[in-house]
Amino acid sequence: MTEPTAASRKPRPGLGRGLSSLLGDNIREEPIAGTPEANSGIRMLPISSLVPDPNQPRRHFDEEALQNLAESIAARGMIQPIFVRPHGHSYQIVAGERRWRAAQRARLHEVPVVVRELSDVEALEIALIENIQRQDLNAIEEAEGYARLIGEFGHTQEVLGKIVHKSRSHVANLLRLLDLPPAVREMVVRGEIDMGHARALLGAPDPEKLAREVAAKGLSVRETEKLARAAKPSTKRGDGEISGRDADIAALERQLGDVLGLNVKVSYGPKGGTLTLSYSTLDQLDMVCQRLSGERI
User: Fold this and answer.
1) 157-164 and 120-133 helices cross at what angle (nearest 10)?
2) Has residue 264 got a pLDDT over 60?
3) Model pLDDT for residues 9-46, shown as the tens digit of each residue
4) Could you state, in order of their start, the residue ranges of all structural domains in the chain?
5) Terminal CA-to-CA distance of the chain, rounded, Å?
6) Which residues are identified as catalytic?
7) CA-to-CA distance for 73 and 282, rounded, in angstroms?
8) CATH code for the part of the protein at 13-137
9) What is the average per-residue pLDDT within 218-239?
């Protein structure tokens, strides 16, 4: 019996179970036929035959950690295989690019690999799972991976949450970070500010300037929130004047945003106000319509 192609294969229900099942049970279920390593599903390949995936979620590799791993591999060898898929005359790395980079530094000629036929969406899902479980992704890299799965492959936030074992609100909060200016997102990537600081700067005037101040002064997340509120222009409500957005309104926006998975803005005045929901994909719009109409999602 011939093995089904990646295009005809149904989505794997095991993705949500994590890499332990993907790289464990599934290896035994789908050995690589015709190789001496068929009983284990692991084979040795020249390190030069592997190429990184230009679209993989992880972009930042800590230099010191990479060097430490290279020294460990040189001394003890590579214990865990690299997960790859056929790519022309070579093999594209799905999970394990850091190990591949370290193996190059350790001057290995061959590395252990597991080869699978995978679609683009399966490859991205597995790469996200591996990096998230290892806590190797910063918040921006994780958010960009989610955005690609939504924009290119039509995933919903609920489905993403199940795949990576995170709450839907976690996915929604990360996606909102992509609304920040590129310079601020890059500061998150470099570790100069973290996710909490970045969230506090959403909606603030000149977030890039504020982010630099946060990094220079080493402010906490709570101090960053105060800084962002103080930077907002004063607004009038009735006869009185308040500084920045009302704290209760900001809290309501965050609460509604977590529930809906969208950017929410509440504007108010003496005679009423408006509630604005911002969506980035038609899938998100469809979700809102279903929620408002009471249909099952």
Assistant:
1) 60
2) yes
3) 444 444 444 444 444 433 332 333 333 333 347 889 99
4) 13-137
5) 38
6) 97
7) 47
8) 3.90.1530.30
9) 78
